Amino acid sequence: MEPANFSHIPVLFKETIESLNIGPDGSYVDCTAGGGGHSGAVAKLLTTGRLVAIDRDPQAIEVLHKRLDIYNNVTIINNNFFFIKSILQGLHIDKADGILADLGVSSHQLDDASRGFSFHKDAPLDMRMSMSGKSAADAVNTLSQQELQKIIFEYGEEKFAQRIAAAIVKERNSAPIKSTLQLADIISNAVPAAARRDSHPARKTFQALRIYVNGELDGLTKAVEDMFDCLKPGGRLSIITFHSLEDRAVKNALAPLAKGCTCPKNFPVCVCGNKPKAKLFKPVTTSEEEIKNNPRARSARLRTAEKL
Fold first, then answer.
1. Please, which residues bridge with residue 237 across strands?
2. Maximum pairwise Cα distance, the chain
3. Which CATH fold would you assign to the domain 117-214?
4. How is domain 13-104+217-307 classified at the architecture level of CATH?
5. Which residues are within 8 A (CB) of 66 and not within 5 positions of it... i.e. 6 or more apart?
6. Number of neighbouring beta carbons within 10 Å of residue 290
7. pLDDT grade, residue 130 (50/70/90)?
8. Which of 54, 124, 222, 308 is such that its CA lies 20 to 30 A from the CA of 192?
9. DSSP 162
10. Where are the domains of the chain?
């Protein structure tokens, strides 16, 4: 039996599939295949084409095999898309016609309490997408107060980072912090009462720890550049982001690719010879209807670049 709650319909589903401009004989890569929603839709549109479905989560890989093994032109890879160049080289794929990445945590990872991503349900404090390496519990129990404060402030954009980090260190001096609700309570008690009214006070800190534990932003800029490098001319890269830090990294990685001439404006003719490498499409955000059906889609944004 496959892990429960793996979402079949991802955020901005129709818009993302359309953005890839899929040709039936093309080669495509889903860098974050998850429950196979996007991958399944791409595979259905292919005839002689090929799809590579990548995910770092072993549970997702189980589900992908159950859902995509019916297609003989789909290759499923358990790895981090940050290594896309070596993954495609290993498969003897030179360049792709389209590449997709749906960043952040999946609905399944949030909904499965045992994975330790959610501050709503009690579970071991884990948060590892790959289910290996250092966990969130390791981070909160071993990092210095200064390191915790920096992570919570930078990755969570949390203005009460100093108070929260101090509270975590004080608490762990008595006993290790092992569960999600234990940490959520520590955070709630650390912030002013007024800060608890708008949204759950643990939301930003949990986001920060998740990003840190999984190294989500560490190599994202280079990963975006590598994905673009792996495209054929005319190929498209489509990336869905869910918070401002991700979106900024993607936007800043794509912007220079669309820049042409860098000569001073007062030059009568171009002497630098620089030409744009990419055409950037207007970012797409979720509709009110989609947000109503899936509140988690509220902050989603789709950015697409075409290689010139």
1. 99, 305
2. 71
3. DNA polymerase; domain 1 (1.10.150)
4. 3-Layer(aba) Sandwich (3.40)
5. 2
6. 19
7. very high
8. 124
9. H
10. 13-104+217-307, 117-214
For residue 111, the model assigns a pLDDT of 84
Write out the DSSP string of 107-119: HHHHH-GGGS--S
Angle in degrees, 0-180, between the axes of helices 220-229 and 244-254, rounded to the nearest 10 = 40
Q: What is the pLDDT of residues 189-220, one digit of tens each?
A: 999 998 888 789 999 999 999 999 999 999 99
Q: Is the dihedral of CA 292, 295, 296, 301 positive or negative?
A: positive
Q: Are 78 and 215 in contact (CB under 8 A)?
A: no
Residue 179 is classified by DSSP as: B
Long-range contacts at 66-74 (CB < 8 A, ≥ 24 apart): 66/2, 67/35, 67/36, 67/39, 67/40, 68/36, 68/39, 68/40, 68/43, 71/43, 71/46, 73/43, 73/46, 73/48, 73/49, 74/39, 74/43, 74/50
Rounded to whole angstroms, how far apart are CA atoms 202 and 186? 9
> Does the pLDDT value for residue 281 go beyond 50?
yes
